[in-house]
From TrEMBL:
It holds the Pfam family Band_7. PANTHER family: HYPERSENSITIVE-INDUCED RESPONSE PROTEIN 1-LIKE, STOMATIN-LIKE PROTEIN 2, MITOCHONDRIAL. Keywords: Coiled coil, Lipoprotein, Myristate. This is Band 7 domain-containing protein. Residues 5-165 form the Band domain. InterPro entries: Band7/mec-2_domain, Band_7, Band_7/SPFH_dom_sf. Residues 118-190 form a coiled coil.
Length: 285
C-alpha cells in the first residue's frame, strides 16, 4: 500500500538510503517519506545506527613461543552524518574489522611474554581500538569500545601453569608450617626452662625452710635443756628423721626393696653426711 502511495517508513535508530535512477540522493531519517517511484526514486537499503558487537578470535604466539587464542570484542556503530560512506564504501564491514583486529593482535602479542599478555591486555585492547578508529572512521563507522575478553593458552601450557602455581602454593604452605612448628618448639623450650627454673626455686626454698626449721629446733632445745650442745641436738634430730624415713619406706605397699647399711657406725655416718649437706646448703644460701 505504501509503495502504491509512494510513501515509505523508516524505523527509529535506522536511516534509509534514497536513490534516483540508481544514483545516491539523500539519507532519509526515521519517519514517513514520500518517494514518487514514477520519477525514478527508490530506497537502496536501510542502515542501522545501533551499536553492534563483533567477537573476533585470533590465534597467535607469544615471545616465549606459546600459542594462545585471543578473543577481542569490538563494539561499533555507523555514524548518521556519514551514512552514505558506511552504506557504499564497505561491502563486508565485519570482515574488514576482523582483518584489522588480526593485524594488530598478531603484531602486538608476539612482542610480549605469556605472563605479560595477561597483565597488558588493556594495552592490547587500546592498540586495537586506536587502529580500528583510524581505519573505520574513513568508512563512516565509530568504534565505541574494544575489549580483550579472553586469552586462552594451549591446554598443555595451561596445565603446566596450574602445576607451577600449585607447587608455589605448596612451598609457601610448607614454609608456614615449618615456621609454626619452630614457634611451637621455641615456646615449648621456653616453657620447660621456666618450669625447671621454678622447680629449682621451689627446691631451694624447701631446703632453706628445712635448714631454718632445724636451726630453730636446735636453738630451742639447747636453751631448754642445759648441758646439751648444738651438735648433740642435730645428731638426735637427724637420727629421728632417719628412722621416720625407714618407717615410711617399710609402710609403703608399693615400695621396692631398699638395702641400706645398718648399725651404730652406719647411723653415725648417715647422720654425719646429712648434717654436712644441710650445713653446706645453709652456708651456700
Amino acid at each position: 500500500m505504501g509503495n502504491l502511495l509512494c510513501c515509505v517508513q523508516v524505523d527509529q535508530s535506522t536511516v534509509a538510503i534514497k536513490e534516483q535512477f540508481g544514483k545516491y540522493q539523500d539519507v532519509l531519517q526515521p519517519g514517513c517519506h514520500c518517494l514518487p517511484w514514477c520519477f525514478g526514486f527508490q530506497l537502496a537499503g536501510h542502515l542501522s545506527l545501533r551499536v553492534q558487537q563483533l567477537d573476533v578470535r585470533c590465534e597467535t604466539k607469544t615471545k616465549d613461543n606459546v600459542f594462545v587464542n585471543v578473543v577481542a570484542s569490538i563494539q561499533y556503530r555507523a555514524l548518521a552524518d556519514k551514512a552514505n560512506d558506511a552504506f557504499y564504501k564497505l561491502s563486508n564491514t565485519k570482515g574488514q574489522i576482523q582483518a584489522y583486529v588480526f593485524d594488530v593482535i598478531r603484531a602486538s602479542v608476539p612482542k610480549l611474554l605469556l605472563d605479560d599478555v595477561f597483565e597488558q591486555k588493556n594495552e592490547i585492547a587500546k592498540a586495537v581500538e586506536d587502529e580500528l578508529e583510524k581505519a573505520m572512521s574513513a568508512y563512516g563507522y565509530e568504534i565505541v569500545q574494544t575489549l580483550i575478553v579472553d586469552i586462552e593458552p594451549d591446554e598443555h601450557v595451561k596445565r603446566a601453569m596450574n602445576e607451577i602455581n600449585a607447587a608455589a602454593r605448596m612451598r609457601v604452605a610448607a614454609n608456614e608450617k615449618a615456621e609454626a612448628e619452630k614457634i611451637l618448639q621455641i615456646k615449648r623450650a621456653e616453657g620447660e626452662a621456666e618450669s625447671k627454673y621454678l622447680s629449682g626455686l621451689g627446691i631451694a626454698r624447701q631446703r632453706q625452710a628445712i635448714v631454718d626449721g632445724l636451726r630453730d629446733s636446735v636453738l630451742g632445745f639447747s636453751v631448754n635443756v642445759p648441758g646439751t650442745s648444738a651438735k648433740d641436738v642435730m645428731d638426735m634430730v637427724l637420727l629421728t628423721q632417719y628412722f621416720d624415713t625407714m618407717k615410711e619406706i617399710g609402710a609403703s605397699s608399693k615400695s621396692s626393696a631398699v638395702f641400706l647399711p645398718h648399725g651404730p657406725g652406719a647411723v653415725r655416718d648417715v647422720a654425719s653426711q646429712i648434717r654436712d649437706g644441710l650445713l653446706q646448703a645453709s652456708v651456700d644460701h
